[in-house]
Amino acid sequence: MKKIFSIILLSAITILILNGCKKENILKQTDEFYVNDNARTLLSSTKWTIIDYGEELYTDSSQEEFEEAKISGSQVVIVTYEGNVGDINTTEIFNSWGIGKNDMGILIVMFFDRVNDELVYKELIFEIGDKMSGYLSAFEATNLTTEYFNELETTDYDLKIISLYFKILEIIYLRVYNYGSYNYQSYMDEYLENQYEYFPNIPSEETNFFDSIPLWLWIVIIIFVISTGSFRWLLPFVFTGGRSRNLGGGGRSRGYWFRK
User: Fold this and answer.
1) Please, which residues have CB within 8 angstroms of residue 41's CB and are 6 or more apart in sequence?
2) Which residue ranges make up each domain of the chain?
3) Residues 6+ apart with CB under 8 A from 146
């Protein structure tokens, strides 16, 4: 019986390890949740701005009065992706991440193509959660994207996305939560002042020791475990890596989106 148990346990551990060695879906949510720079094109200052103000929005919109009105937990998530629009399903991403509590979420995905070893911006998809669409229509969001992203006279896409991002936050704070004011320009000025200052990498982009272990070394570890029966020795390797926090509020979208 002990031998059978050992075989079953070893099989389970082996499956977990090999699954961990596989390349994860490149659009899994990050621990920070509010930004996934898959294309590796955004400045650290931009990512930290999105994370900090994203967390602030979620906190501000989670007051008791908003909970009672079932409009709490707004979230705006920014993603960059190297590839074509047809490569990924943004509605599926929105729903699997659960962006925005009470369906009060927005997902913006910027698509880039690699040309002569350089990333070139292609287009943008703007997806709106079911209840959020009652406050921000696709038509208005299209106009905002045109004015605050596409027509901004710069090739600086960090600045473009932050310009659109703060305008969306303004709409949410004033229209959904009835704030008395929202000084869009002051937020933009603060970002411009700090845009090229040094910011560390966001934690999810730091190298994880266990992610760097090659497959052949995992095989050596498994062989060692089989030969010694030291199953407890292997458990830290199995359960240390690959954990992420689900910070989504459970929001959904029925595919209310546009590309621009």
Assistant:
1) 80, 110, 112, 119, 157
2) 35-203+246-259
3) 260
Q: pLDDT for 13-54, tens place per residue? A: 555 555 544 444 448 899 999 999 999 999 999 999 999 999
pLDDT in tens, 103-152: 999 999 999 999 988 899 999 999 999 999 999 999 999 999 999 999 99
Tell me the torsion sign for CA atoms 196, 201, 205, 209. positive
Fold of 35-203+246-259: Diaminopimelate Epimerase; Chain A, domain 1 (3.10.310)
State the Cα–Cα distance between residues 57 and 207, nearest whole angstrom: 29
